[in-house]
Amino acid sequence: AQSVTQLGSHVSVSEGALVLLRCNYSSSVPPYLFWYVQYPNQGLQLLLKYTSAATLVKGINGFEAEFKKSETSFHLTKPSAHMSDAAEYFCAVSDLSGGFKTIFGAGTRLFVKA
Amino acid sequence: EAGVAQSPRYKIIEKRQSVAFWCNPISGHATLYWYQQILGQGPKLLIQFQNNGVVDDSQLPKDRFSAERLKGVDSTLKIQPAKLEDSAVYLCASSLGPGTGNTIYFGEGSWLTVV
After folding, report:
1. How far apart are CA A90 and CA B21, in angstroms?
2. CA pseudo-torsion sign B98, B102, B108, B112
3. Which residue in the set B40, B93, B99 is minimally distant from A100, CB to CB?
4. CA-CA distance, B103 to B31, in Å (whole number)?
5. For strand B5-7 and strand A102-104, is the pairing parallel, antiparallel, or unpaired?
6. Residue-level pLDDT at B101
7. Is the pLDDT reported for residue B91 higher than 70?
8. Which residue among A25, A86, A92, B34 is least packed, with the fewest CB closer than 10 Å?
């Protein structure tokens, strides 16, 4: 069965610094991978997704993620953090073995310091 | 394009009472999901519908939770009787289909507090 592990429940960066949020997945078949963002009191919104095309995926708000099969990772990055990036970020995986279910990680809360 | 609509946004009930949440998905979306998100955790799938049929309800506590999607559009999630541990945000979501690459669109959630 597929699963997702997000390393670090909280990440704090300074404004303008690199953002790196880590996600490792477990899947017995080629996965589809997603990053969602959740702002306070709101639902989740898709940032980007990997669907077996290019391994480097660009999303909204300057975020991107790279699929690395050898490392079973799908880390999310942004070169320069903005205050508005403060939110909770969820990595998710979906594959055929899971019956098309999308499984979410526990989330990483990003804090951005001025 | 209108998003996923949910109501009520907030509900406080006493344990052993009942509560119902309503969801209207994005027009044309065949797949509808109910997720439970407990504070500090990721969303957990409770039930997934394809049109008006259930695709997966393996994590739905069927002794107290029920859900229906009549006519393949709106959906209702009911909890009866509620327990303290049911305090969570209930997220409704929809997608064009159940395929693994489909984007899931979420509503803003219904916040439940059981006291």
Report:
1. 24
2. positive
3. B99
4. 11
5. unpaired
6. 76
7. yes
8. A86
- Measured between CA atoms, how close is B42 to chain A, in angstroms? 4
Quote the tokens at residue A28: 């017995």
Tokens 């509503």 sit at which residue? B107
- Interatomic CA distance for residues A82 and A13, integer angstroms: 10
What is the Cβ-side half-sphere exposure of residue A80, based on CA atoms within 13 angstroms?
1
Instruction: Give me the residue label for tokens 């055929």.
Output: A96
CA gyration radius, chain B:
13
Q: What is the pLDDT of residues A59-101, one digit of tens each?
A: 999 999 999 999 999 999 999 999 999 999 999 998 776 667 7
Residue of B44, B48, B97, B43 whose CA lies nearest to B69: B48
* Helices of type H across A48-107: none
User: Chain A closest CA to B108's CA: distance in Å?
Assistant: 4
Rounded Cα distance, A62 and B77, in Å: 36
Tokens of B69: 């999607």
Identity of the residue numbered B27? S
pLDDT tens for A45-56 read 999 999 877 889
